[in-house]
What we know:
This protein is α/β, with parallel strands linked by helices. 39% of the residues lie in helices and 25% in strands. The chain is built from 9 helices and 12 strands. The protein has helices spanning 12-24, 27-34, 38-52, 68-91, 110-122, 135-143, 205-216, 229-237, 282-295, and strands at residues 57-60, 63-66, 100-106, 126-132, 149-152, 161-175, 186-187, 196-200, 222-227, 242-246, 257-261, 267-275. Strand 1 (57-60) and strand 2 (63-66) form a beta hairpin. Helix 1 packs across helix 4. The longest helix has 24 residues, at 68-91. 31% of the residues are buried.
Amino acid sequence: MSEHDRLKYVNFNQLRSFYAVALELNFTKAAEWLSIGQPTVTTQVKELEEAYDVQLFHRKPHGLELTDVGTALLSLARQKFALEDRAHTLLTSTGNTYAGRLHIGTVGPFFVMDILSEYSEKFPLVRVSVESGNSDAIYQRLLNYEVDVAILGLDYEDHKLESVNLGHHEITIIVNQSHVWAGRTAIDLVELDGQRMIYREQGSMTRRALEEQLAAKMIRPNVVMELARDSVVEAVMAGLGAGIIAKEELSPLSQLTQLCIRDDTPFTHSYAVCLKERLAITPIQVFMNLAEGSRSQ
Protein backbone atom coordinates (compact mmCIF):
# COMPACT_ATOMS: atom_id res chain seq x y z
CA MET A 1 0.00 0.00 0.00
CA SER A 2 1.42 3.36 -0.99
CA GLU A 3 1.71 6.26 1.43
CA HIS A 4 -0.99 8.02 -0.56
CA ASP A 5 -3.44 5.16 0.04
CA ARG A 6 -2.88 4.90 3.77
CA LEU A 7 -5.78 5.80 6.07
CA LYS A 8 -5.44 9.38 7.23
CA TYR A 9 -6.53 10.28 10.74
CA VAL A 10 -6.38 13.10 13.23
CA ASN A 11 -5.14 12.31 16.74
CA PHE A 12 -8.35 11.61 18.65
CA ASN A 13 -7.26 13.05 22.01
CA GLN A 14 -6.05 16.24 20.35
CA LEU A 15 -9.28 16.61 18.39
CA ARG A 16 -11.37 15.91 21.48
CA SER A 17 -9.54 18.59 23.45
CA PHE A 18 -9.96 21.05 20.58
CA TYR A 19 -13.68 20.24 20.42
CA ALA A 20 -14.17 20.88 24.14
CA VAL A 21 -12.23 24.15 24.05
CA ALA A 22 -14.08 25.28 20.91
CA LEU A 23 -17.42 24.73 22.63
CA GLU A 24 -16.45 26.35 25.93
CA LEU A 25 -13.94 28.91 24.60
CA ASN A 26 -12.13 28.32 27.84
CA PHE A 27 -9.34 25.81 28.58
CA THR A 28 -10.25 25.38 32.24
CA LYS A 29 -13.92 24.68 31.54
CA ALA A 30 -12.97 22.32 28.72
CA ALA A 31 -10.72 20.36 31.08
CA GLU A 32 -13.51 20.11 33.65
CA TRP A 33 -15.88 18.84 30.95
CA LEU A 34 -13.37 16.19 29.84
CA SER A 35 -12.35 15.35 33.44
CA ILE A 36 -8.65 15.81 32.67
CA GLY A 37 -6.07 18.37 33.71
CA GLN A 38 -6.04 21.78 32.08
CA PRO A 39 -2.30 21.51 31.12
CA THR A 40 -3.15 18.34 29.19
CA VAL A 41 -5.88 20.11 27.23
CA THR A 42 -3.60 23.07 26.49
CA THR A 43 -0.78 20.76 25.33
CA GLN A 44 -3.03 18.67 23.10
CA VAL A 45 -4.51 21.72 21.35
CA LYS A 46 -1.02 23.15 20.85
CA GLU A 47 0.22 19.84 19.43
CA LEU A 48 -2.72 19.73 17.02
CA GLU A 49 -1.95 23.24 15.78
CA GLU A 50 1.75 22.44 15.41
CA ALA A 51 1.10 19.13 13.65
CA TYR A 52 -0.76 20.90 10.83
CA ASP A 53 0.90 24.31 11.12
CA VAL A 54 -2.41 26.09 11.70
CA GLN A 55 -3.85 28.45 14.28
CA LEU A 56 -7.20 27.31 15.66
CA PHE A 57 -7.80 30.04 18.25
CA HIS A 58 -7.07 33.72 18.63
CA ARG A 59 -5.77 34.21 22.19
CA LYS A 60 -7.06 37.67 23.11
CA PRO A 61 -7.11 39.55 26.44
CA HIS A 62 -10.87 39.07 26.77
CA GLY A 63 -10.73 35.35 25.95
CA LEU A 64 -10.53 32.87 23.10
CA GLU A 65 -11.99 33.25 19.61
CA LEU A 66 -12.06 30.63 16.87
CA THR A 67 -10.10 31.38 13.73
CA ASP A 68 -11.65 30.64 10.34
CA VAL A 69 -9.82 27.30 10.30
CA GLY A 70 -11.00 26.60 13.85
CA THR A 71 -14.60 27.36 12.93
CA ALA A 72 -14.43 25.00 9.94
CA LEU A 73 -12.82 22.26 12.06
CA LEU A 74 -15.49 22.66 14.75
CA SER A 75 -18.18 21.96 12.14
CA LEU A 76 -16.44 18.71 11.17
CA ALA A 77 -15.77 17.77 14.79
CA ARG A 78 -19.47 18.12 15.62
CA GLN A 79 -20.23 15.49 12.97
CA LYS A 80 -17.50 13.17 14.21
CA PHE A 81 -18.61 13.30 17.83
CA ALA A 82 -22.26 12.95 16.82
CA LEU A 83 -21.26 9.65 15.16
CA GLU A 84 -19.35 8.66 18.28
CA ASP A 85 -22.49 9.27 20.32
CA ARG A 86 -24.40 7.11 17.85
CA ALA A 87 -21.83 4.32 18.31
CA HIS A 88 -22.12 4.68 22.09
CA THR A 89 -25.91 4.32 21.86
CA LEU A 90 -25.52 1.18 19.77
CA LEU A 91 -22.93 -0.42 22.05
CA THR A 92 -24.88 0.31 25.23
CA SER A 93 -28.05 -1.23 23.82
CA THR A 94 -29.36 -4.47 25.27
CA GLY A 95 -32.11 -6.21 23.32
CA ASN A 96 -34.81 -3.62 22.66
CA THR A 97 -33.82 -1.42 25.60
CA TYR A 98 -31.63 1.54 24.73
CA ALA A 99 -29.52 3.67 27.00
CA GLY A 100 -27.96 6.98 26.10
CA ARG A 101 -29.37 10.44 25.55
CA LEU A 102 -31.75 12.32 23.28
CA HIS A 103 -31.31 16.08 22.97
CA ILE A 104 -34.40 17.91 21.73
CA GLY A 105 -34.66 21.49 20.56
CA THR A 106 -38.16 22.97 20.46
CA VAL A 107 -39.95 26.22 19.72
CA GLY A 108 -41.94 25.65 22.91
CA PRO A 109 -42.34 22.96 25.61
CA PHE A 110 -46.05 22.54 24.85
CA PHE A 111 -45.38 21.11 21.39
CA VAL A 112 -43.22 18.24 22.63
CA MET A 113 -44.47 17.12 26.05
CA ASP A 114 -47.19 14.72 24.89
CA ILE A 115 -44.72 12.94 22.62
CA LEU A 116 -42.12 12.81 25.41
CA SER A 117 -44.61 11.25 27.80
CA GLU A 118 -45.04 8.27 25.48
CA TYR A 119 -41.36 8.26 24.56
CA SER A 120 -40.21 7.92 28.17
CA GLU A 121 -42.33 4.77 28.51
CA LYS A 122 -40.59 3.16 25.53
CA PHE A 123 -37.06 4.31 26.46
CA PRO A 124 -36.87 4.65 30.25
CA LEU A 125 -33.06 4.43 30.15
CA VAL A 126 -32.63 7.26 27.65
CA ARG A 127 -31.80 10.57 29.30
CA VAL A 128 -33.78 13.28 27.52
CA SER A 129 -32.83 16.95 27.58
CA VAL A 130 -34.96 19.73 26.12
CA GLU A 131 -33.98 23.26 25.18
CA SER A 132 -36.21 25.99 23.82
CA GLY A 133 -35.60 28.73 21.29
CA ASN A 134 -37.06 30.26 18.16
CA SER A 135 -37.29 28.26 14.95
CA ASP A 136 -34.26 29.76 13.21
CA ALA A 137 -32.00 29.15 16.21
CA ILE A 138 -33.16 25.56 16.76
CA TYR A 139 -32.89 24.83 13.02
CA GLN A 140 -29.23 25.87 13.04
CA ARG A 141 -28.52 23.77 16.13
CA LEU A 142 -30.03 20.75 14.37
CA LEU A 143 -27.79 21.28 11.33
CA ASN A 144 -24.78 21.63 13.65
CA TYR A 145 -25.58 18.29 15.38
CA GLU A 146 -26.21 20.13 18.65
CA VAL A 147 -29.71 18.68 18.96
CA ASP A 148 -30.92 15.27 17.78
CA VAL A 149 -34.48 16.20 16.88
CA ALA A 150 -36.24 19.55 16.64
CA ILE A 151 -39.75 20.91 16.89
CA LEU A 152 -39.87 23.86 14.50
CA GLY A 153 -42.49 26.41 13.54
CA LEU A 154 -41.57 26.44 9.85
CA ASP A 155 -41.06 23.90 7.08
CA TYR A 156 -37.57 24.85 5.88
CA GLU A 157 -37.93 22.57 2.82
CA ASP A 158 -34.37 21.33 3.37
CA HIS A 159 -33.61 18.09 1.52
CA LYS A 160 -31.33 17.02 4.40
CA LEU A 161 -34.27 16.88 6.81
CA GLU A 162 -36.97 14.34 7.62
CA SER A 163 -40.10 16.26 8.68
CA VAL A 164 -43.50 15.47 10.21
CA ASN A 165 -46.22 18.14 10.23
CA LEU A 166 -47.69 18.18 13.75
CA GLY A 167 -50.54 20.61 13.01
CA HIS A 168 -51.43 24.30 13.17
CA HIS A 169 -51.79 26.63 16.14
CA GLU A 170 -53.85 29.79 16.57
CA ILE A 171 -52.02 32.97 17.55
CA THR A 172 -53.66 35.03 20.30
CA ILE A 173 -53.13 38.29 22.12
CA ILE A 174 -52.49 38.36 25.87
CA VAL A 175 -53.01 41.27 28.28
CA ASN A 176 -52.89 41.65 32.06
CA GLN A 177 -55.88 42.23 34.29
CA SER A 178 -55.51 46.03 34.33
CA HIS A 179 -55.58 46.33 30.53
CA VAL A 180 -58.61 47.93 28.87
CA TRP A 181 -59.21 44.65 26.98
CA ALA A 182 -59.11 42.46 30.09
CA GLY A 183 -62.87 41.90 30.15
CA ARG A 184 -63.04 40.77 26.54
CA THR A 185 -62.55 37.43 24.80
CA ALA A 186 -61.71 38.64 21.28
CA ILE A 187 -60.52 41.65 19.29
CA ASP A 188 -60.41 42.67 15.64
CA LEU A 189 -57.00 42.85 13.98
CA VAL A 190 -57.36 46.56 13.29
CA GLU A 191 -57.49 47.26 17.04
CA LEU A 192 -53.78 46.45 17.20
CA ASP A 193 -53.03 49.61 15.19
CA GLY A 194 -51.02 51.89 17.49
CA GLN A 195 -51.37 49.46 20.39
CA ARG A 196 -48.36 49.02 22.69
CA MET A 197 -47.13 45.54 21.76
CA ILE A 198 -44.49 43.18 23.08
CA TYR A 199 -43.23 41.09 20.17
CA ARG A 200 -41.34 37.83 20.03
CA GLU A 201 -37.73 38.06 18.88
CA GLN A 202 -36.59 37.87 15.25
CA GLY A 203 -36.71 34.27 14.02
CA SER A 204 -40.01 33.54 15.78
CA MET A 205 -42.65 32.03 13.50
CA THR A 206 -45.38 33.37 15.83
CA ARG A 207 -44.13 36.87 15.18
CA ARG A 208 -43.73 36.26 11.45
CA ALA A 209 -47.28 34.95 11.03
CA LEU A 210 -48.82 37.94 12.84
CA GLU A 211 -46.65 40.44 10.98
CA GLU A 212 -47.80 39.03 7.63
CA GLN A 213 -51.44 39.59 8.59
CA LEU A 214 -50.75 43.09 9.89
CA ALA A 215 -48.76 44.10 6.80
CA ALA A 216 -51.56 42.92 4.50
CA LYS A 217 -53.92 45.40 6.18
CA MET A 218 -51.30 48.12 6.79
CA ILE A 219 -51.79 47.89 10.54
CA ARG A 220 -48.88 49.23 12.58
CA PRO A 221 -48.72 48.42 16.30
CA ASN A 222 -46.39 50.36 18.58
CA VAL A 223 -43.78 47.67 19.23
CA VAL A 224 -42.09 48.60 22.51
CA MET A 225 -40.15 45.38 23.17
CA GLU A 226 -38.87 42.24 21.41
CA LEU A 227 -38.41 39.33 23.80
CA ALA A 228 -38.21 35.54 24.05
CA ARG A 229 -41.47 33.68 24.77
CA ASP A 230 -41.22 33.44 28.56
CA SER A 231 -40.08 37.05 28.81
CA VAL A 232 -43.09 38.17 26.76
CA VAL A 233 -45.40 36.67 29.37
CA GLU A 234 -43.48 38.33 32.20
CA ALA A 235 -43.54 41.72 30.47
CA VAL A 236 -47.30 41.49 29.84
CA MET A 237 -47.88 40.59 33.48
CA ALA A 238 -45.91 43.71 34.42
CA GLY A 239 -48.29 45.82 32.33
CA LEU A 240 -45.76 46.84 29.68
CA GLY A 241 -48.08 46.12 26.78
CA ALA A 242 -50.05 43.41 24.98
CA GLY A 243 -48.20 40.30 23.90
CA ILE A 244 -48.51 37.54 21.29
CA ILE A 245 -48.50 33.81 21.96
CA ALA A 246 -49.80 30.55 20.48
CA LYS A 247 -53.17 29.67 22.02
CA GLU A 248 -51.95 26.38 23.54
CA GLU A 249 -48.87 27.94 25.13
CA LEU A 250 -50.58 29.98 27.84
CA SER A 251 -50.94 28.16 31.13
CA PRO A 252 -54.56 27.72 32.34
CA LEU A 253 -53.35 29.02 35.71
CA SER A 254 -52.07 32.27 34.22
CA GLN A 255 -53.61 35.50 35.49
CA LEU A 256 -53.49 36.93 31.99
CA THR A 257 -56.43 37.37 29.62
CA GLN A 258 -56.15 35.60 26.28
CA LEU A 259 -57.90 37.22 23.32
CA CYS A 260 -58.72 35.58 20.01
CA ILE A 261 -58.36 37.57 16.80
CA ARG A 262 -61.78 37.45 15.15
CA ASP A 263 -60.88 38.34 11.58
CA ASP A 264 -58.03 36.85 9.55
CA THR A 265 -56.85 34.75 12.46
CA PRO A 266 -53.10 34.12 12.14
CA PHE A 267 -51.79 30.57 12.59
CA THR A 268 -48.43 28.91 12.92
CA HIS A 269 -47.51 25.30 12.20
CA SER A 270 -45.22 22.92 14.05
CA TYR A 271 -42.97 20.22 12.62
CA ALA A 272 -40.95 17.40 14.16
CA VAL A 273 -37.64 17.28 12.30
CA CYS A 274 -34.40 15.32 12.26
CA LEU A 275 -31.47 14.90 9.88
CA LYS A 276 -32.20 12.12 7.36
CA GLU A 277 -28.72 10.72 7.86
CA ARG A 278 -29.52 10.13 11.55
CA LEU A 279 -33.03 8.73 11.13
CA ALA A 280 -31.74 5.15 11.48
CA ILE A 281 -30.65 5.85 15.06
CA THR A 282 -33.32 3.99 17.01
CA PRO A 283 -34.15 6.61 19.70
CA ILE A 284 -34.47 9.28 16.99
CA GLN A 285 -36.48 7.01 14.73
CA VAL A 286 -38.92 6.12 17.51
CA PHE A 287 -39.40 9.80 18.38
CA MET A 288 -40.23 10.58 14.76
CA ASN A 289 -42.63 7.62 14.61
CA LEU A 290 -44.39 8.88 17.73
CA ALA A 291 -44.60 12.35 16.16
CA GLU A 292 -46.22 10.82 13.08
CA GLY A 293 -48.69 9.00 15.32
CA SER A 294 -49.57 12.14 17.26
CA ARG A 295 -50.44 13.91 14.02
CA SER A 296 -53.07 11.32 13.16
CA GLN A 297 -54.78 11.44 16.56
